[in-house]
Design a protein that fits this description.
There is one protein chain. This protein has helices at 2-27, 36-43, 48-80, 87-117, 121-135. By secondary structure, the chain is mainly α. It has a domain at 34-134: Up-down Bundle (Four Helix Bundle (Hemerythrin (Met), subunit A)), CATH 1.20.120. Helix 3 (48-80) runs antiparallel to helix 4 (87-117). The longest helix is centred in the middle third of the chain and has 33 residues, at 48-80. It is extended, with a radius of gyration of 25 Å. 2% of the residues are buried. The model has no long low-confidence stretch (mean pLDDT 83).
Length: 152
Amino acid sequence: MKKNTMLFILLGFLMVMNTVLLYIVIKEPDKKPRPPREFIYDRLDFNKDQIDRFFLIDDAHHEKMRAIDRESRLLKEQLFSRIRGNELLIDSLASQIGALTKERELEVYHYFKRIEEICDERQKRKLERILKGAIRPRPPAHGPPPGGPPPR
């Protein structure tokens, strides 16, 4: 009898916790992380005109990145479907994938350059700080600290 009572108490507790979790997820959608586009124009304090121009820049950028990603994915599928293929063809596919990686990096650079063009001087300084913070190396989330474990 005691086992059944404990199981019912545990079951009740788990049901209450699930209900609370569902409430948080469904009733408080504002707690979800903001997309990067909002982060950029919020942090840079864009006015209405700048936000409109930013959306045009951002939409064009995302379309370009999707096209690069689609093409890269197709090339990678071709590459890995030819594990025992012609080395010349494999080298060509790898070179094309490398060229797309370069194109992707340049697109990201030009994206931020276009954003900078709609900024005033104060916003340009803020953007520069944001970008420097984004490329600064971060410690790994898991594993030992940089430089190895502390001495014993």
